[in-house]
């Protein structure tokens, strides 16, 4: 068993640390925030993630994981240091590497034995070469330090599972020593390992994430065309999915992708290409489609309602996807300010994301409008003039069509996640618009759909 230090206790660092402890390594997680360290020692996770607290508590009790602010002690003794600090987006779309640089320097000044530095954070291709050079420039003791790339593919909401049962482990190294050490660390997981050079490993991460973003934007583009020509994007996706070259996953059209990875990584790859004198046309298109997609329903509703001023608007779902309290790049963040600016009276429900959202938009008056946070979907829907669905949480999906009809003043629903069946909404008497499908109860359109005539875009 090896001694592993992990720099950064965000999604990537903390989940990786817990994963390594779970398979038997001795793990010390480093964070600069004293309160956060104490919180983690008492078994509380700073992030909302299924199974995480349970495994933190179990491995802490077994003495396999601990948390500290004392990076000097942590890096001095480690066989390997995993870096999982953030690489936020700069204004120009490039990745901000200042946190990586800080950690790299701390490592260089404190390692006392041969040590492998493993970068898990998503970094532009070529960064790890520079990190290795940087560490060697600042190295105090006469020890061997190399840098490896080991990108992370976990998705929020299933991060622990994605780590323990990863589809593949990508390791990018420049020496046999580094490759063998990383293989030894990962051996107990018993997962497929793909060993490549450092730059290829860095590229695999971007190419994978951006491919998925592209797949979503492609389906959203197709969805928008489906609406215009009277096709149904869910039927289209199902038909496509039988071809295993296409696959059945990530074909869900909706209100655009959000989260901490796809928006950032598409922009970073586009930036990298531009820096290298190349235009990455496919990724530019994915970014473009996604930008428009996020406010598509708002625009449709604006046409239908003339104004939101003084209307009671139910917002169901605030996080960028279910299973997380993360709001980064969530469609709600694009739409709520537009509604408030128009003077809407918003009643928002999210099972987990309310607290984070309220930090950005405190309850009460906001500009011309107001925002209120409620405990369940029904409370939000009561007497509402219009409803927007932004996240497909289980207890939002569970709201039956007749409930919209019974509770709302006018049963008018804009569904960004294609949760409901059109026929069911039609029968319940709900006026219903979604993504890439015919509307329900918009006078006559059902007939158009049946007869195969063109449905007008609304
Ligand atoms: C993603 C990748 O899945 C993961 O491998 C990588 O390490 C980090 O980025 P995450 O951002 O947590 O993970 O969520 P994911 O489930 O992939 O969803 C991303 C966004 O795409 C969400 O906004 C989601 O709603 C949207 N999405 C996903 C769609 O709109 N349609 C789909 O079919 C799938």
Fold topology:
Layout: E1 3-7, H1 11-22, E2 26-30, H2 34-41, H3 52-61, E3 65-68, H4 71-77, E4 80-83, H5 98-110, E5 115-119, H6 127-138, E6 145-149, H7 159-164, E7 169-172, H8 176-186, E8 193-196, H9 198-229, H10 233-241, H11 262-275, H12 281-293, H13 296-305, E9 312-316, H14 331-341, E10 345-349, H15 354-360, E11 364-366, E12 369-373, H16 377-381, E13 386-389, H17 394-397, H18 401-407, E14 412-415, H19 422-428, E15 431-433, H20 445-451
Bound molecules: uridine-5'-diphosphate-xylopyranose.
Residues 152-156, 209, 212, 216, 250-252, 254, 257-259, 261-262, 320-321 line the site of uridine-5'-diphosphate-xylopyranose.
User: What is the helical fraction, as a range of percent?
Assistant: 40-55%
Poorly predicted sequence stretches spanning 5 or more consecutive residues: 444-458
**How big is the Rg?**
24 Å
List the domain count as a whole number: 3
User: Helical element count?
Assistant: 20
CATH architecture of the largest domain: 3-Layer(aba) Sandwich
Number of distinct beta strands? 15
The chain-level structural class is alpha/beta
What is the approximate shape?
Answer: elongated
What is the CATH C-level name of the largest domain? Alpha Beta
Mean pLDDT level: 94
The CATH H-level superfamily of the largest domain is: NAD(P)-binding Rossmann-like Domain
Proportion of residues in extended strands: 5-15%
CATH topology of the largest domain: Rossmann fold
Which distinct ligands sit in these coordinates? uridine-5'-diphosphate-xylopyranose
Organism: Planococcus liqunii
Enzyme class: oxidoreductase
Keywords: NAD, Oxidoreductase
EC number: 1.1.1.22
């Amino acid at each position: 068993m090896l001694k592993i230090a992990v720099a950064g206790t965000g999604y990537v660092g903390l989940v990786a640390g817990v994963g390594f402890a779970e398979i038997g390594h001795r793990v010390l997680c480093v964070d600069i925030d004293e309160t956060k360290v104490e919180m983690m020692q008492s078994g509380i996770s700073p992030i909302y993630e299924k199974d995480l607290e349970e495994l933190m508590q179990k491995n802490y009790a077994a003495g396999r994981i601990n948390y500290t602010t004392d990076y000097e002690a942590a890096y001095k003794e480690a066989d390997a240091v995993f870096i999982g600090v953030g690489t936020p987006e700069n204004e120009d779309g490039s990745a901000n590497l200042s946190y990586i640089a800080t950690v790299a320097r701390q490592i260089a000044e404190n390692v006392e034995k041969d040590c492998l530095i493993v970068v898990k954070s998503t970094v532009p291709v070529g960064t790890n070469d520079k990190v290795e050079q940087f560490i060697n420039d600042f190295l105090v003791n006469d020890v061997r330090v190399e840098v490896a790339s080991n990108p992370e593919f976990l998705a929020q909401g299933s991060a622990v599972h994605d780590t323990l049962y990863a589809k593949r482990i990508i390791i990018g190294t420049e020496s046999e020593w580094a490759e063998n050490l990383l293989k030894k660390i990962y051996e107990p997981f018993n997962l497929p390992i793909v060993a490549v050079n450092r730059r290829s490993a860095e590229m695999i991460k971007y190419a994978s994430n951006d491919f998925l973003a592209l797949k979503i934007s492609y389906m959203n583009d197709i969805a928008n065309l489906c609406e215009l020509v009277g096709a149904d994007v869910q039927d289209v996706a199902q038909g496509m999915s039988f071809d295993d070259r296409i696959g059945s996953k990530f074909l869900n059209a909706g209100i655009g992708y959000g989260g901490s990875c796809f928006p950032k990584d598409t922009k970073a790859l586009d930036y990298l290409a531009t820096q290298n004198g190349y235009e990455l046309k496919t990724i530019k298109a994915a970014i473009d489609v996604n930008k428009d997609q996020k406010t598509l329903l708002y625009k449709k509703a604006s046409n239908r309602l003339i104004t939101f001023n003084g209307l009671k608007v139910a917002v169901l779902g605030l996080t960028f996807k279910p299973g997380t309290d993360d709001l980064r790049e969530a469609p709600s963040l694009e739409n709520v300010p537009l509604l408030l600016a128009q003077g809407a009276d918003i009643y928002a429900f999210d099972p987990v994301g309310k607290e984070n959202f309220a930090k950005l938009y405190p309850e009460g008056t906001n500009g011309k409008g107001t925002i209120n946070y409620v405990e369940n979907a029904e409370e939000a829907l009561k007497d509402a003039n219009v409803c927007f669905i932004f996240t497909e949480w289980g207890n939002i999906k569970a709201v039956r069509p007749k409930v919209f009809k019974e509770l709302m003043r006018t049963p008018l629903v804009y569904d960004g996640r294609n949760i409901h069946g059109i026929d069911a909404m039609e029968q319940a008497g709900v006026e219903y618009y979604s993504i890439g499908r015919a509307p329900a109860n918009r006078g006559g359109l059902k007939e158009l759909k049946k007869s195969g005539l063109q449905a007008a875009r609304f």
